[in-house]
Specification:
- The complex is a heterodimer.
- Chain A is an all-alpha fold.
- Chain A is built from eleven helices and no strands.
- Chain B is 70% helix and 0% strand.
- In chain B, α1 crosses α3, α3 packs across α6 and α4 packs across α7.
- Chain B is globular, with a radius of gyration of 17 Å.
- The chains are: A mainly alpha, B mainly alpha.
- At the A-B interface, α1, α2, α3 and α4 of A face α1, α2, α3, α4 and α7 of B.
């Protein structure tokens, strides 16, 4: 068969040259997508959210997301939730074949991809979106809800970044701000986990334990509850562990 | 064969995937959503990736399917955005890049004149520079079909650009 092609017009060549030189996407967007990938693994509703197609996708892919969760937890520089989710997945009986040594959160220095993304960039007002709900199908009144979710995520991202920088006091500050603004926020489980980790990082193990017990009481079926306990068991000076 | 891992693909090809999604008609307001789906799919399919092949056509094939899914769902919900400016990100471009942004806008508009199948082949060949046999492999097409679609796509693209230029010429 002849493979002769009609040549592109000179105008077509001109515009396509510009298209080939399209500038990179914003770093903030790159970071947000990464955060959402991580959230789709770690978010409590990721595997159980109703109708949105992406939630179904996430649920279907969940077992395969273990390495992704591990990777993303590291990529988000101190993001503990991915690793925590990993730990929970490996505990699940139907995923026994996937069990592997639970990885510790990686050090920020090992994650060059996200290093250039400044906290301020991550905190810029992102496009409204739910972590595990890729289609933006909300009615107009739903946009304010999504804006609130974005605000929640921004605050928690600050907390996570502060933990990664070894500044647990700033992480706690961000978590407290989240609690003040969203006492019943959709990401409160993640906030609590970050708070517990920050307290532990500050050496305030008694406060961390107390908060962990409250977490277990408030969220007995949370994906993260076992990981919270693991954090406490591994805390220095821990002799009794959290009460079962 | 030791292929690229997910971190490597994400770091090296995030821009490529997003650019491809824009070319496939995903509006800026949905870009993050669809990019997220693409990379979830990439991870799920990583073990099927042939490391001997270039990654971009493979990634494009995944982006094409996710873009198609998005368009179908948006269409069902009558949410296909038409009024949204196609290059919101380029509004931030520095002085001197404005013309480039305008040209890229024309490309996206002209691509809208192509159906999805032709558009995919055209983007891979005339934007990305992918050889036709590689395109055929990535899109799981017979090579002759890929050539045929490319021919049709070029005609349609040239015609669309000429159509855009006509009103300007008539005004002169």
């Amino acid at each position: 068969m002849s493979q002769e092609l009609e040549p592109l017009s000179s105008e077509a060549e001109r515009v396509l040259e510009a298209e080939r030189a399209r500038p990179p996407e914003a770093d903030a967007m790159r970071a947000r997508v990464l955060e959402r990938l991580r959230a789709s693994v770690a978010a409590p509703g990721a595997g159980a959210a109703p109708s949105p197609p992406s939630a179904a996708t996430a649920a279907a892919q969940a077992p395969r997301l273990l390495p992704l969760g591990t990777f993303l937890a590291g990529m988000v520089a101190g993001g503990v939730v991915g690793a925590v989710a990993y730990a929970r997945w490996t505990e699940a009986p139907d995923r026994a074949e996937q069990s592997a040594p639970a990885p510790a959160p990686q050090a920020p220095s090992a994650l060059p991809e996200l290093a250039p993304v400044a906290e301020a960039e991550v905190g810029t007002p992102p496009a409204p979106a739910l972590p595990a709900r890729p289609l933006r199908t909300e009615p107009p009144e739903g946009r304010s809800a999504d804006a609130a979710l974005e605000r929640e995520r921004t605050l928690l991202e600050r907390a996570r970044a502060a933990l990664a920088r070894g500044r647990p006091e700033l992480a706690l500050q961000a978590a407290q701000q989240h609690e003040a603004e969203f006492p019943r926020g959709r990401l409160r489980e993640e906030r609590e986990l970050l708070s517990i980790q920050a307290l532990a990082a500050q050496g305030e193990h008694a406060a961390a334990r107390k908060r962990a017990e409250r977490f277990r009481r408030d969220f007995p079926h949370s994906l993260l509850v076992g990981a919270v306990e693991e954090l406490l068991w591994s805390a220095p000076g821990q002799d009794a562990g959290p009460k079962r | 064969l030791a292929g690229p891992d997910f971190a490597e693909l994400y770091a090296q090809h995030f821009d490529y995937v997003c650019h491809s999604l824009r070319r496939l008609g995903i509006p800026p307001g949905a870009l993050e959503d669809v990019a997220q789906e693409v990379f979830l799919r990439v991870h799920a399919k990583l073990d099927t990736y042939d490391a001997a092949r270039p990654p971009r056509p493979w990634l494009f094939g995944i982006a094409l399917r996710e873009a198609s899914t998005w368009r179908q769902r948006a269409s069902q919900r009558r949410e296909l955005p038409t009024a949204e400016p196609p290059l919101a990100v380029d509004e931030r471009t520095p002085e001197g890049a404005a013309q480039g942004a305008q040209l890229r806008r024309q490309v996206l508009q002209a691509l809208e004149a192509l159906d999805e199948q032709k558009r995919a082949v055209f983007i891979l060949h005339d934007v990305d520079g992918t050889p036709v046999p590689e395109i055929a492999r990535a899109l799981e097409l017979p090579v002759n079909t890929a050539w045929s679609r490319l021919r049709s796509a070029r005609q349609a693209f040239n015609a669309a650009l000429a159509e855009f230029a006509r009103p300007r010429q008539e005004l002169r």
